[in-house]
Amino acid sequence: MGRFVRSPKDVVTGLLLIFLGAWFAWLGSDLPIGRAIRMGPGYFPLVLCGILAALGLIVLLTGLDFGGDAEADEDARQIAIPWQGLALITLSVVVFGLAVRPLGLGPAMGLAVFISAAASRRFSLKGGAIMAAVMVAFAWAVFIKGLGLPLPMLGPWLGGY
Questions:
Q1: Which helix (H) or strand (E) holds 111?
Q2: Is residue 40 part of a domain?
Q3: Residue burial 41-72, b: 16+ Cβ < 10 Å; e: rest
Q4: What distance in Å separates the CA atoms of residue 9 and residue 80, rounded to the nearest whole number?
Q5: Which residue range is the domain that position 131 belongs to?
Q6: Tens digit of pLDDT for each residue in 70-98?
Q7: C-alpha span between 76 and 60 (Å, rounded)
Q8: Can you say whether residue 67 is alpha, beta or left, with left for phi > 0 and alpha for psi between -120 and 50 degrees?
Q9: Considering the domain boundaries, does residue 76 fall inside one?
């Protein structure tokens, strides 16, 4: 089986996307689907799960070798998982979820963007701060001014609402 794998990263990523698509489809299986002309609340999530699984299948198939170079380089077969980047991205999502109510949209988004920017190999404090400020301004312009959503930029811990 190992000699059919051209890119282990693509195979693992494809399997992960297929698994996530199937898992989210299973989680939403109790929602009524309806029909294309009269969609239920489970229709669109099911379509997204199908698209995710289909993209996972495409990525999986691109990582396989269906006959050809049997003497592939062994170093290319090693999967190097960037644990620090994975942990920082996960941490940024958790920080946003925990901080959005007490701190508000602005500081929570700023923290999340700054932490996720730190996952990059080219991270700098100045670049991360600029990126966080631009994203907070963009979120304010789109969600609060543009769409008129009642999201507080500052939460109760910072004197908002």
A1: helix 105-117
A2: yes
A3: ebbebbeebeebbeebeebbeebeeeeeeeee
A4: 8
A5: 83-155
A6: 455 554 556 677 889 989 999 999 999 99
A7: 16
A8: left
A9: no
C-alpha distances in Å from residue 47, one per residue of 20, 44, 129:
13, 5, 37
Please count the structural domains in the chain.
Answer: 2
Query: Considering only CA atoms, which of 141, 81, 67 is closest in space to residue 106?
Result: 141
Please state, in angstroms and rounded to a whole number, the distance separating the CA atoms of residues 27 and 48: 13
How far apart are the C-alpha atoms of 107 and 118, rounded to whole Å? 17
Per cent of the chain over pLDDT 90 is: 66
Q: Tens digits of per-residue pLDDT, 129-150? A: 999 999 999 999 999 999 898 9
Please choose, from the candidates 82, 83, 85, 113, the residue with its C-alpha nearest in 3D space to the C-alpha of residue 99.
Answer: 113
Rg (CA), the chain: 21
Query: What 8-state DSSP symbol labels residue 31?
Result: S
Ramachandran angles phi, psi of 81, nearest 5°: -90, 125
Structure tokens at 22: 């199937």
115 part of a folded domain: yes
